[in-house]
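Re: beginner question about structure tokens

> Can someone show what the tokenized structure looks like for a real chain? I only ever see the sequence side.

Sure, here's an example I had lying around. Input first:
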Amino acid sequence: MILKSALPFIAILLFLLALVFRNNPFLKRKRLRKEPSSFPGEISFPEVKFEKVTGALGWVFIAFYCYSEAFDYFAQEEYFDASLALVFLAFSLFLALLLVRPGENEDLFFTVTKVALITSVFYFPFSEISFLGDSLIYITAKITTMVLNLFNVGVYMVPLSSIYTTNSSFHEAYNPIVIILACTAIQSMVLFIGLIFGVNAPLRRKQKAFLVSVPVIYGLNIFRNVFVTAAYFGQWFGSPLQSFDLAHGVIARIGAMILLIIVAYAVFVILPEALNLVEEFFHFIFRKNQ
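And the corresponding structure tokens:
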């Protein structure tokens, strides 16, 4: 567990080194001359730059972390989350491979690495440091409880993050709603933070893009939690468990995807540099596969 928690912070350090020491050669170009009796000429080894080596290692450590996450999710039978972890694992290894290949688009991968660094700095402290993660979970559960009561859904919270209905007979058979880190929308928010502040653009437009994305995502996520909790306690779609599965696993998930697309569109309108980065990256990938 300690080793797993250390992996992303090692990756953060490597990403930081890659950006700080960009354009500093890790290995100077070496030229080995042949023996005098041989044909004239020289053998050149391509230059390996420090930021490419450290950046690639950073992605490898992220891949190891994703492997550990996928293993844990499979053990918990959380197959959707496990699949996402495997996708990120493959993506991380793919980027690591591209970084060490000579002649690739260094400016593109420099920007992608910067986005990864910012995203990692804002996500992994919450996911791996209990105090920070628990604080965010507690705040989210508290706000969710307050909003539920505003809508006359009688609930109360038991710290750290359990939400109970005031109908005590309900809990004779069913558990409370428990807010976990995934219920805080931290993953979606940090992705937008990394994308917005990782590209080169005027600070004023970055601030506007931030305001139409991160606070909006968090606010919408509160209402997502409210909807799922109210459906569960109110038995909107059948039994409490059926209501939870439909509200959480289908309606809320589809709604979240639609809303994220809308938020992303707003960010791209305000900050076209972010869209250019995404387009350039996929253009590079598809061009390499042709």
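Each token stands for a local structural state, so reading them left to right follows the chain. The beta strands are 25-27, 31-33, 42-44, 48-49, 155-158, 162-165, 177-178.
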